[in-house]
């Protein structure tokens, strides 16, 4: 006797569906709350289905970081083309994260890639390089100013300060420094 096929065939999952589900888990539970098993349970699919797209959790988190960084790099490249001004680049950087507040938590993930965090990501290095060019190649100042802006963004991330006030805070701080 033949075994019966499953009554309902599950639809094929997508890479984007995995990333969206992982993003929801990240927002709710942080990096520790993201797991292949939890993602599979929410989609729903079998955990091995996720391995078709990603080797492990770290690769999922890397993909989640790459998308906003690509968009940010494009924005900073456009800004640098119009004016190679450090303050303008830093304001564009801050504005990007303030307008993408849901994704801002990606900026402050702990080193879930072993020792790597977003600040060691290859794409983040491109951001530092763009700022370094505006500062006549001064790597220390570029890292320092980015660190300052990231610190301000970190304070704003979980506060009730709206984007406009947060942007003004960053702008006033940078005006005093640059």
TrEMBL record:
SUPFAM superfamilies: Homeodomain-like. The keyword Cell inner membrane does not apply. This is TetR/AcrR family transcriptional regulator. The keyword ATP-binding does not apply. InterPro entries: Homeodomain-like_sf, HTH-type_TetR-like_transc_reg, HTH_TetR. Residues 35-54 bind DNA. Coiled coil: none annotated. It holds the Pfam family TetR_N.
């Amino acid at each position: 006797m033949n075994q019966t096929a499953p009554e309902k065939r599950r639809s094929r999952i997508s890479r984007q569906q995995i990333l969206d589900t992982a993003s929801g888990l990240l927002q709710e539970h942080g990096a520790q709350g993201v797991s292949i098993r939890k993602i599979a349970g929410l989609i729903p699919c079998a955990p091995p289905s996720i391995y078709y797209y990603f080797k492990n959790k770290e690769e999922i988190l890397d993909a989640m970081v790459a998308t906003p960084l690509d968009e940010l790099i494009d924005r900073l490249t456009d800004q640098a083309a119009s004016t190679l001004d450090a303050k303008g680049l830093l304001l564009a950087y801050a504005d990007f994260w303030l307008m993408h507040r849901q994704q801002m938590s990606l900026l402050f993930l702990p080193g879930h890639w072993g020792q790597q965090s977003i600040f060691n990501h290859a794409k983040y290095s491109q951001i530092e390089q763009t700022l370094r060019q505006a500062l006549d190649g001064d790597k220390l100042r570029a890292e320092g100013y980015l660190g300052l802006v990231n610190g301000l963004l970190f304070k704003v991330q979980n506060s009730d300060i709206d984007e406009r006030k947060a942007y003004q805070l960053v702008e006033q701080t940078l005006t005093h420094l640059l």
